[in-house]
C-alpha cells in the first residue's frame, strides 16, 4: 500500500498498451489500474474484439481511474495513389469519430507497408498536412511512428523529417524505443528534436537475438531492463528534449500474453520507475520526474539463511547441516529458532508453530523462508525497494528485539535487510544467545543461492533484483536435464549471487521441485570453501551424503581441460567437478538431493572465475536423478 502511494505521487505519467497483457478488457483495466498506471493505449483490435460500445469503453477506463493516452495503430496511410488515398482519409475520418466517442485525442499512425504506396518525403509530408487539417476538425492529434520494417520510413529521423515538413500543429512524432534501438540507430539523434513536437513515447526492451525485425518485435519485446537494448540511453535522449508526455509500455510478448495480468502490469510499472531512476543517476543534469529515493547499492553478502520447518522435520535438516560442518551455536531469545554456524555462514532453523515461518512451512514444506542481506544502509535499501513497488513484510518483533526491514521475494519468501552501521549489525547480540563455534569443515560464506521457478517468472525476478540492487545479469545459459531444458539466469550484486532457474518442463529436477514445494523457492545453496579437498574430507568424515559422479565424467574432464591425472583422481575420489573460464578455475561438489529435490553445493573459486559450473549441470542433474530413484527402479 505504501509503495502504491509513492508511485501515484510522482509526476511522471505512466501508461501501458492493452496488447501487453492477457485477459479481456475489464481484466486488463483492473490489472493496469491496480499496478498504479495513469493511462492505457487502446490497441484497436482489443476494442474491436470487445462487445462494448466506444462510449462504454471510455467510461470503463475512466471508472478505473485511467485515461486513454493513445489509440493505435492506424496503418498504411501515407503516400498512396488514388483511389487508395481518398479511402485512407475516409477511414481516418471514421477513426477520429471513434476516438471522440472513446474520449482520446491522440492516434498513432505507423509508417506504411502498403504495396501501392509511392514513398517520397514531400508526398508523405503533404498527406500528413492534410490529415492534420482533418484531425483538427475532429479535435484530435496525429502522431507518426517509424516501424523499423516500414517500406519507406523505418527510422525515427525520417519520420521526424516528414512531421517537420508537414508543419501542422496537429501532427507530431511518436517514438518507440524498440524501433530505434532494434535498428541500432543512435538514440542521441533524438536530442535534436524539439520536445513539444514529440507527441508520445513508447518503451520496450528486447533480448539480443538476431532475427527478422517484425517477428522479433511482435513476439520478443519485454519490459525496460529485462532485455539487452539501451532503453536508458533512449530515455536520456527523450528526456533531454523536454518531452513531458506519458511514458507508455508497448510490449508484444508471447509469454506476457498468457501471464497473470496483475504481475505483468506490476513488472511494467516497476521497470518504468527503474529506467527513469537510471536516467537521473547517469545524467543528473536532466529533469527528474520521480520522488527522491536512495540509489541502488551493492549487497555486501548474505548474513543468514533461515529454514522454516517443524519439530518433526528439523532433526533431518540439522543432521544434514552437521554433516556440512555446521554446529548449533545459539538460540533466538524468544522464538524456537536455532542458530547454526560455520565460518561466515549463519543458518537459522525455525520450528515456530505460528507466524510467517509456520505459514511458509505449511505451504512449501521444509525450506528456505528467509534470506538476510548485509547492505551499506538497510533502511535506505528498504525505502528504495518500496519505491520500486516491492511488497513490504512486517511481523511484530518481541520486546527489545530488532525490527528488521523486510520485503517479499521469490515465492513469497522474505528478504531482510541488515547493515553494519545501525543496531541491525548487532543482530547476533540482540536477538540471539550465542556461544563460540568450533572449527567446522572450512565453509566460509554463501557463494550463491539457486532459486527455482516456473520459466514464466524468470524475467520478473531478474527485474526485481536488478532494479532494487546495484546488480548485473550474466547471459542466460541452457541447462540440459534429461527430461527437458532449464534456463538459468545468474544475477550478481556485490557479494550476493543468485541463480534463477526457470523450468517449463515438469519432469525436470527443477520442475519436480516446483511441484513438490508448491511454487518457487530456494532449491540449492552453494557454500564457498578456500580448500575444497580439505572440506570434502572433513565433510566425508561427518557422513555428508555426497552426490556420486560417474567415472565417464572424469575421463572427459581430464581430456577436455588437460588436467594432471593425479588431480583428476583426487577429484574422482571426492566426487568433485571442475570448470574453468578465462578468469580462473572452479571446483564443486554436491549433496544428494533431499526427497523434495533440495540440495547443498560446495564450491571453490580460483583466480577470477565468474561462472557457476554450468557445463557440469547435465552430469549433476543426471546423478541427482539416479540418487533420487530407489535402486532397481526403472526410470519413471
Ligand atoms: O507490430 C506492429 O504492427 C506495430 C504496431 C504499432 C506499433 O506502435 C508498433 O510499435 C508496432
Ligand atoms: Mg510502437
TrEMBL record:
Pathway: Aromatic compound metabolism; 3,4-dihydroxybenzoate biosynthesis. One of its GO terms (biological process) is 3,4-dihydroxybenzoate biosynthetic process. PROSITE patterns: VOC. Pfam families: AP_endonuc_2, Glyoxalase_5. It comes from Bosea lupini. Keywords: Dioxygenase, Lyase, Metal-binding, Oxidoreductase, Pyruvate. Mg(2+) binds at residues 448, 524, 601. Its EC number is 4.2.1.118. It catalyses: 3-dehydroshikimate = 3,4-dihydroxybenzoate + H2O. One of its GO terms (molecular function) is 3-dehydroshikimate dehydratase activity. InterPro entries: 4OHPhenylPyrv_dOase_N, DSD, Glyas_Bleomycin-R_OHBP_Dase, IolE/XylAMocC-like, VOC_core, Xyl_isomerase-like_sf, Xyl_isomerase-like_TIM-brl. A divalent metal cation binds at residues 145, 176, 202, 250. This is 3-dehydroshikimate dehydratase. Residues 445-592 form the VOC domain. Its cofactor is a divalent metal cation. Belongs to the bacterial two-domain DSD family. Gene3D superfamilies: 2,3-Dihydroxybiphenyl 1,2-Dioxygenase, domain 1, Divalent-metal-dependent TIM barrel enzymes. The keyword Acetylation does not apply. Catalyzes the conversion of 3-dehydroshikimate to protocatechuate (3,4-dihydroxybenzoate), a common intermediate of quinate and shikimate degradation pathways.
Amino acid at each position: 500500500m505504501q509503495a502504491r502511494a509513492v508511485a501515484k505521487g510522482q509526476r511522471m505519467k505512466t501508461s501501458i498498451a492493452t496488447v501487453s497483457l492477457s485477459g479481456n478488457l475489464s481484466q486488463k483495466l483492473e490489472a493496469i489500474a491496480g499496478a498504479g498506471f495513469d493511462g492505457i493505449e487502446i490497441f484497436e483490435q482489443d476494442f474491436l474484439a470487445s462487445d462494448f460500445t466506444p462510449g462504454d469503453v471510455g467510461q470503463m477506463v475512466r471508472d478505473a481511474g485511467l485515461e486513454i493516452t493513445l489509440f493505435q495503430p492506424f496503418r498504411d496511410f501515407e503516400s498512396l495513389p488514388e483511389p487508395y488515398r481518398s479511402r485512407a482519409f475516409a477511414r481516418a475520418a471514421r477513426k477520429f469519430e471513434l476516438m471522440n466517442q472513446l474520449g482520446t485525442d491522440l492516434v498513432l499512425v505507423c509508417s506504411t507497408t502498403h504495396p501501392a504506396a509511392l514513398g517520397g518525403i514531400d508526398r508523405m509530408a503533404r498527406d500528413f498536412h492534410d490529415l492534420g487539417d482533418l484531425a483538427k476538425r475532429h479535435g484530435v492529434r496525429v502522431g507518426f511512428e517509424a516501424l523499423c520494417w516500414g517500406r519507406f520510413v523505418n527510422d525515427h529521423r525520417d519520420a521526424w523529417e516528414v512531421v517537420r515538413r508537414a508543419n501542422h500543429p496537429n501532427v507530431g512524432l511518436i517514438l518507440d524505443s524498440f524501433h530505434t534501438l532494434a535498428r541500432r540507430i543512435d538514440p542521441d539523434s533524438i536530442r535534436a528534436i524539439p520536445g513539444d513536437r514529440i507527441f508520445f513515447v513508447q518503451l520496450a526492451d528486447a533480448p539480443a537475438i538476431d532475427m527478422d525485425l517484425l517477428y522479433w518485435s511482435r513476439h520478443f519485446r519485454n519490459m525496460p531492463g529485462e532485455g539487452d537494448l539501451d532503453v536508458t540511453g533512449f530515455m536520456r535522449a527523450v528526456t533531454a528534449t523536454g518531452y513531458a508526455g506519458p511514458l507508455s509500455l508497448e510490449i508484444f510478448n508471447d509469454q506476457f500474453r498468457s501471464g497473470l495480468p496483475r504481475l505483468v502490469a506490476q513488472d511494467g510499472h516497476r521497470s518504468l520507475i527503474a529506467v527513469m531512476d537510471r536516467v537521473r543517476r547517469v545524467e543528473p543534469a536532466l529533469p527528474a520526474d520521480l520522488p527522491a529515493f536512495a540509489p541502488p547499492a551493492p549487497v555486501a553478502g548474505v548474513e543468514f539463511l533461515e529454514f522454516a520447518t517443524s519439530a518433526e522435520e528439523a532433526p533431518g535438516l540439522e543432521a544434514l547441516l552437521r554433516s556440512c560442518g555446521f554446529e548449533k551455536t545459539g538460540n533466538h531469545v524468544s522464538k524456537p529458532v536455532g542458530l547454526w554456524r560455520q565460518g561466515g555462514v549463519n543458518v537459522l532453523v525455525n520450528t515456530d508453530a505460528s507466524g510467517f515461518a509456520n505459514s511458509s512451512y505449511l505451504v512449501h514444506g521444509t525450506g528456505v523462508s528467509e534470506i538476510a542481506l548485509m547492505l551499506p544502509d538497510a533502511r535506505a535499501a528498504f525505502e528504495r525497494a518500496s519505491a520500486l513497488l516491492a511488497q513490504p513484510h512486517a511481523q511484530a518483533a518481541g520486546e527489545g528485539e530488532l525490527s528488521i526491514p523486510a520485503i517479499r521475494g521469490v515465492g513469497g519468501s522474505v528478504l531482510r535487510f541488515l547493515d553494519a552501521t545501525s543496531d541491525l549489525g548487532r543482530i547476533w547480540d540482540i536477538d540471539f544467545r550465542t556461544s563460540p563455534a568450533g572449527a567446522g569443515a572450512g565453509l566460509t560464506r554463501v557463494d550463491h543461492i539457486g532459486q527455482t521457478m516456473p520459466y514464466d517468472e524468470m524475467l520478473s525476478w531478474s527485474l526485481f533484483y536488478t532494479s532494487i540492487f546495484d546488480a548485473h545479469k550474466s547471459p542466460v545459459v541452457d541447462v540440459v536435464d534429461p527430461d527437458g531444458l532449464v534456463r538459468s539466469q545468474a544475477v550478481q550484486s556485490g557479494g550476493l549471487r543468485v541463480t534463477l532457474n526457470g523450468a517449463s518442463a515438469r519432469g525436470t529436477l527443477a520442475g519436480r521441485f516446483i511441484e513438490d514445494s508448491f511454487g518457487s523457492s530456494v532449491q540449492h545453496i552453494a557454500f564457498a570453501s578456500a580448500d575444497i579437498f580439505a572440506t570434502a574430507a572433513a565433510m566425508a568424515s561427518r557422513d555428508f551424503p555426497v552426490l556420486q559422479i560417474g567415472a565417464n565424467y572424469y575421463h572427459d574432464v581430464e581430456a577436455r581441460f588437460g588436467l594432471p591425472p593425479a588431480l583428476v583422481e583426487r577429484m574422482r575420489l571426492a566426487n568433485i567437478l571442475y570448470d574453468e573460464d578465462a578468469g580462473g578455475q572452479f571446483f564443486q561438489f554436491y549433496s544428494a538431493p533431499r526427497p523434495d529435490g533440495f540440495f547443498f553445493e560446495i564450491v571453490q573459486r580460483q583466480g577470477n572465475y565468474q561462472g557457476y559450473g554450468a557445463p557440469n549441470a547435465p552430469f549433476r542433474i543426471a546423478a541427482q536423478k539416479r540418487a533420487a530413484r530407489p535402486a532397481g527402479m526403472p526410470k519413471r
